[in-house]
């Protein structure tokens, strides 16, 4: 029937856009009227042939994510793009899917830029830490080279205790 061919062509184009963004080229998606629930058999994903909707695309994305074979962070961005841009109508157009995939790609690119900036910042911090340890080392050498001289010119107030390294000496009062 002509209506089914048009619908399946629309669904196929929409899912191919999602697959391209995700990089899942080895999976084959087939739409069938007889299928009521999405399922996977080998490298084929069978999906109900129903009007293009946000709900259907989210279900397909979920099936793709569970059966992709490798972890892929882009699934989260695709889900966010679908949820942010698509309405809950049951008669979406292909341009809506284009917008959702573009939004997912924007989110992915923003995250990549942030991660690169964060990585560069961490590298700069590591370099700074290395630079900071050098002066500390020199300061410690300097302090250890200073000799403390004992003087007898210090006047103490009667009844005060002088802290000593040896606790047995702390019982003596200075007068």
Give the helices and strands, then pairings.
Blueprint: H1 2-22, E1 28-32, E2 39-41, E3 44-48, H2 54-67, H3 74-85, H4 94-145
Helix pairs in contact: 1-2, 1-4, 2-3, 3-4
Give a short synopsis of this structure.
The chain has 175 residues and is mainly alpha-helical. The protein is built from four helices and three strands, in the order αβββααα. Strands 1-3-2 form a three-stranded mixed sheet, with helices on one face.
Largest sheet: 3 strands, mixed
C-alpha geometry: elongated
Kindly, what is the distance between the CA atoms of the first and last residues, rounded to a whole number of angstroms? 113 Å
Low-pLDDT runs of 5+ residues are none
Report the strand count. Answer: 3
Strand order of the largest sheet: 1-3-2
Helix content: 55-70%
The succession of helices and strands, N to C, reads: HEEEHHH
- The average pLDDT is 77
Q: C-alpha Rg, in Å?
A: 35 Å
In percent terms, what proportion of residues is strand? 5-15%
Class per helix and strand makeup = mainly alpha
Number of helices: 4
What do you see in this structure?
The protein has helices at residues 2-22, 54-67, 74-85, 94-145, and strands spanning 28-32, 39-41, 44-48. Strands 1-3-2 form a three-stranded mixed sheet, with helices on one face. 15% of the residues are buried. A hairpin with a 2-residue loop joins strand 2 and strand 3 (44-48). Helix 1 crosses helix 2 and helix 2 (54-67) packs antiparallel against helix 3. It has 175 residues and is mostly helical. It has four helices and three strands; from the N terminus they run αβββααα. 57% of the residues lie in helices and 7% in strands.
